[in-house]
Amino acid sequence: MTVTTPASSGTSTVAVLGTGIIGAPVAKNLRKTFAVNAWNRTRAKADRLAESGGIKVFDTPAEAVAGAEIIVTVLTDGDTVLETMTAAAPGLTKGAIWIQLSTVGATATEQLAGFADRHGLVFYDAPVQGTKQPAENARLVILAAGPESARRQAEAVFDAIGSRTVWVSTEPPAASRLKLALNSLVFALTHGTAESLSLARALGVDPRLVVDVVTGGPLDSPFFQSKAAAVLGGDYEPSFSVANAVKDARLVAQAAEQAGVKADVATAGLERFRRAAREGHGEKDMAASYLAS
């Protein structure tokens, strides 16, 4: 595993497919270095990027990727990525680089790599660590796996959207496997924060005291502070939604089962996210784990 330093960038055209919470800031940051084409299933979200200047928005994936040397997918799940790239196929250029940022799990990544091979694309399995604010600030951490042949071009993209790149392997889906392990930790921290504050309140203790005690100590972190602030302020504007957390937590649980790991915390956390979603909190930030009754 290696960590890269910034690489020099080129003037290629990048097609960004998916301009949601992560995809929109990714496209904006790429525009500082590249020409950017964009497509989103809900056109209005992509149109906002055109209004901010310099990004061309297209009606179909095939139109967006036509003439693009690099394709970046930032979509919800493996099925959606495959459906979108299938729609894009008529516009793909053989030899183009495909950077797959979505968290889709190892099995889906293998299927996407197969699609890339059939269409002559250079595929990089590159899920990101970080949500809305790191994406806006170009501070994502990119977990990357893929061939050495086009790493310079891929790293120019990574440098435009992230603070560093961790090369895991030359072979996908190694990066996606690492992302699942990291997500297991992220979800445990989310639920741990939510349950600690909930328990304090139920015991008649001001939950702000939990934050007061943790602050500055060995348990403190920016992540803890942000999720605790969301709970205490009742502000669940999504940086990563409960619905997306259900999807990713399911991938973690499935991967653990396939690997023969007894992932008790991950399994329980998945059910907690599912409960929060059933209770109407699916579009809120995953800190709404706190609201699961």
Describe the model:
- The chain is an alpha/beta fold and 293 residues long.
- It has two domains: 13-171, NAD(P)-binding Rossmann-like Domain (Rossmann fold); 177-292, N-(1-d-carboxylethyl)-l-norvaline Dehydrogenase, domain 2 (Orthogonal Bundle), CATH 1.10.1040.
- Helix content is 50%, strand content 15%.
- It is built from twelve helices and ten strands.
- The strands form two sheets. A six-stranded parallel sheet has the order 4-3-2-5-6-7, sandwiched between helices. Strands 1-10-9-8 form a four-stranded mixed sheet.
- Helix 1 links the parallel strand 2 and strand 3 (35-39).
- Helix 8 packs across helix 10 and helix 11 (242-259) runs antiparallel to helix 12.
- It is globular and about 65 Å long.
- 47% of the residues are buried.
- The model is unreliable at 2-10 (pLDDT under 50).
Structural topology:
Layout: E1 2-4, E2 13-17, H1 23-31, E3 35-39, H2 43-51, E4 55-57, H3 61-65, E5 70-73, H4 78-88, E6 97-100, H5 106-118, E7 122-125, E8 128-129, H6 132-136, E9 140-145, H7 151-161, E10 162-169, H8 174-202, H9 208-214, H10 222-233, H11 242-259, H12 264-281
Parallel strand pairs: 2-3, 2-5, 3-4, 5-6, 6-7, 9-10
Antiparallel strand pairs: 1-10, 8-9
Helix pairs in contact: 4-5, 8-10, 8-11, 8-12, 11-12
Shape: globular
Using only CA atoms, what is the Rg? 19 Å
Helical content class: 40-55%
Which regions have little confidence, pLDDT < 50, spanning 5+ residues? 2-10
How many distinct folded domains?
Answer: 2
Query: Can you tell me the CATH architecture of the largest domain?
Result: 3-Layer(aba) Sandwich
